[in-house]
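Quarterly update from the structural biology core.
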Amino acid sequence: MYRFALPVLLAFALVAPRASFAELLAVKEPETVALGPITLTDGTRTGLPLEAVLPDGPAILHFWATWCAPCREELPALDAFIDGLEADGLADGLVIISVDRAGYDRVSAFLKGGLGLDLISWQDESGKAGQTFRLFGFPATILLDAGHRVVWRHSGALDWDDPAIRAELTEFLAPPQ
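Predicted structure, tokenized:
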């Protein structure tokens, strides 16, 4: 009986529908996450709770690392997207966070010297962002609603130059009319 059951179970496992990676990351209902354990630094201040740097309304969190090749390719376009947000008065809604373990000086030097960007980035000094937000790789982008619940999660680079993506993210941050 067992000799027959094992091959049948294996065959079923191979043909059964599986959730795609995108489906695993999809947020069907807003998710409340414990933001308190995540602490940030900007090189001068340390131990700053993530909640302290979030705007009162919705937010876009973008996680990256100096060792991440897609992150390095994506950051210049992200910097240009921020310029558009600044023009609309929405730049505070985008919070950029490095997950590097090296000191903040290295992160800052990489942005300014390595990429020539004036990008302002926080650093996750607690090392808990990945676990808290269920991030499976970097770069990663999270959308938080006005109650700071996760409403969208994306693992991988975004095309920050794509007009449709820019419009959708800008609209997400804009106050209701």
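The radius of gyration is 19 Å.
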